[in-house]
Amino acid sequence: MPQITVLLNNYNYGRFLAEAVRSVIEQDFDDLELLIVDDGSTDDSRQIISSFNDPRIRSIFKENGGQLSAFNTGVLESTGEVISFLDADDVFMPGYLKRVWEEFEKNKDCGFLMTRLEFFGNKTGFASAWPEGKIGSNPFSVAARHLWIGMGTSACSVRRDVLLKFLPWCDGEYQWKTRADDLLVWGGDLAGAVKYSIHEPHVKYRIHGSNLFYGEKTPAETEVQERRDAAERFCGAVVEKNKLSYADMLKTELKHGSVSRGETLRSWLKLGYRRKMRFFEYLKCGMLILAGIKFRSSIKRIMHDPQENMSMAVEKRSKK
Fold first, then answer.
1. 44 Cβ partners below 8 Å, 6+ apart?
2. What per-residue confidence (pLDDT) applies to 314?
3. Which domain range does residue 20 map to?
4. Can you give the three-state secondary structure of the chain, one letter per residue?
5. Which of 1, 49, 96, 289 could in theory staple to 202 by disulfide, Cβ–Cβ 3.0 to 4.6 A?
6. How far apart are CA 179 and CA 231, in angstroms?
7. pLDDT digits (tens, 9 = 90+) for 291-316
8. pLDDT at res. 144
């Protein structure tokens, strides 16, 4: 069993695919498999994949179903202890996979690792990034209000046993043909994975004018609401699959979370407004939160902070 599976998802990115593949097989880390999931491409992707003669490469050619469909297939077929995701139009920098494995070995509690992205192509520069080191786990706030603490697809590496707690998720494939990396980010927290960050860039994120998400116009309100509903269904499905209680998710967040107690309190208030919890569990969660914060100062900060989600701390990014 390889230490790392690189899950490369591709759809009609033949013009970039060879560079992405080379960026993996030329790494100074040998204990890997490269699993290429081609999502029904109609360009020359199949010929490009077939041109590589490397025993570490496996390829799957499937009908077009979108990015989540590719993730579902790839995770089930993967054999590595850690899965590093890569979009076919991005590239890994030299030394990246070695650093990934070192971080997981050094931090045994790490279930989800992300690195900073460097833009190239039609735009240069760097994506916003989280601080170096331990970020934490915030399942309660993800379940309550879809808190987003992560990076784009190609910046994420996740332990396989964590991924299997929320993937495959087939019911929502048609709604997550793009931006399925949101589910990696939310699912990681819901699964209780402790997140870590590498502040320096190790992955190059290509801007090329035909990205499936980057640079899109602001979506219509109906589309935004549909996406919120889809996120709610996913989070609910993960909670049900893993038999999670809000009280247990709250305990995890209070112990390992990166958000302030005030942010957690806002999540609790959101759950109450939406009536998502039984009364006595809701009351128990409130008591757990209030036991760890100064009530008045937290309420004051909440009332003066109009932002709904702390995810704006990261440039929300990915084009997929």
1. 14
2. 40
3. 1-320
4. CCCEEEEEEECCCHHHHHHHHHHHHCCCCCCEEEEEEEECCCCCHHHHHHCCCCCCEEEEEECCCCHHHHHHHHHHHCCCCEEEEEECCCEECCCHHHHHHHHHHHCCCEEEEEEEEEEEECCCEECCCCCCEEEECCHHHHHHHCCCCCCCHHHEEEEHHHHCCCCCCCCCHHHCCCCCHHHHHHHHHHCCCEEEEEEEEEEEEEECCCCCCCCCCCCCHHHHHHHHHHHHHHHHHHHHHCCCCHHHHHHHHHHHCCCCHHHHHHHHHHHHHHCCCCHHHHHHHHHHHHCCCCHHHHHHHHHCCCCCCHHHHCCCCCCC
5. 96
6. 11
7. 866 544 544 555 555 444 444 444 44
8. 94
Q: Residue 13 is part of a domain; what is its CATH number?
A: 3.90.550.10
β-bridge mates for residue 118, sequence order: 126, 204
For 189, residues 6+ apart whose C-beta sits below 8 A from its C-beta are: 137, 138, 139, 141, 142, 147, 149, 195
Q: What is the pLDDT of residue 59?
A: 98
Total number of domains constituting the chain: 1
Considering the entire predicted model, what is its pTM?
Answer: 0.88
pLDDT for res 209: 77
